[in-house]
Amino acid sequence: MKDFKLYTITGEEFHPNRDLVTVMEQAILGGSDIIQLRDKTNSKKVVFEKAKQLRELTKKYGVTFIVNDHIDVALAVDADGIHIGQDDLPIEEARKIVGENKIIGLSTHAIEEAREAERAGADYIGVGPIFHTKSKVDVVDPVTTDYIRQVVQEITIPFVAIGGIKLHNVDQVLEAGAARICAISEIVGAEDVQSVCQQFIEKINQKVKL
Ligand code: 3NM
Fold it and tell me: Is 107 a catalytic residue?
């Protein structure tokens, strides 16, 4: 898969007065190089419509596009990949459906899950929640930057740190060894989405040479 630095996940509840595509375009213009559509509330029909719009947007900018949960929607709009969780289909089964050319990302919250994801053929893993977050309901206690250090030592597939990451605490995450950062609320809830992304990218570039 094409490597990335700043992963923005949609969170429309954080920008009730602004349009989804506009906000995500600002994120891309600020340097976000991978976008995920995550919608746990709307019908598949609505998710599909949003996915079509974001596919068009990401194609225009050459940015990777991932769909959360809905494998069928991801295939229907020809997204670059899917992101699934611990309670979804096993990676091997998801792989049979999407094929070798799509990206499969998996959320992990402990080193055993990371090991299993690698063994099963995930293309990347989410590592989190690093800090407390209000953006995910079923999430476990924060895993802290200790989990990042474990993953750096043991896991060879790419990982992205997620959960409660803000401009004011991202340095701790980078110092622990993360090379890729993911955020929802800090980015899409910002007044100036583009500027927040630029600031994340600057911090990543200061600490990491991918
Ligand atoms: N997954 P925010 S934490 C979607 O740990 C998601 O797997 C997590 O949102 C995980 O940047 C999380 O607003 C929410 O904290 C991230």
Answer: yes
Pair 155, 118: CB distance under 8 Å: yes
State the closest ligand 1 atom to the C-alpha of 166, by its place in the atom list counted from 1: 11
Which long-range contacts (C-beta less than 8 Å, at least 24 apart) are formed by 94-99?
95/121, 97/71, 98/71, 98/74
- Could you confirm whether 149 is annotated as catalytic? no
CA of 129 from ligand 1 middle (Å) equals: 6
Residue ranges in the chain modelled with pLDDT below 70: 138-139, 208-210
Domain boundaries, the chain: 6-207
Kindly state the tokens that stand for 74: 């991801």
* pTM recorded for the entire structure: 0.97
**How many CB atoms within 10 Å of residue 166?**
14
Fold of the domain built from segment(s) 6-207: TIM Barrel (3.20.20)
- Which is nearest to 55 in space by CA: 21, 32, 88? 21
Can you tell me the ipTM of this complex?
Answer: 0.99
Q: Is 133 in the pocket of ligand 1 (CB under 6 A)?
A: yes
Query: Is 115 among the catalytic positions?
Result: no
Q: Which residues are within 8 A (CB) of 77 and not within 5 positions of it... i.e. 6 or more apart?
A: 48, 51, 52, 55, 67
Q: Determine contact, residues 203/192, Cβ cutoff 8 Å.
A: no
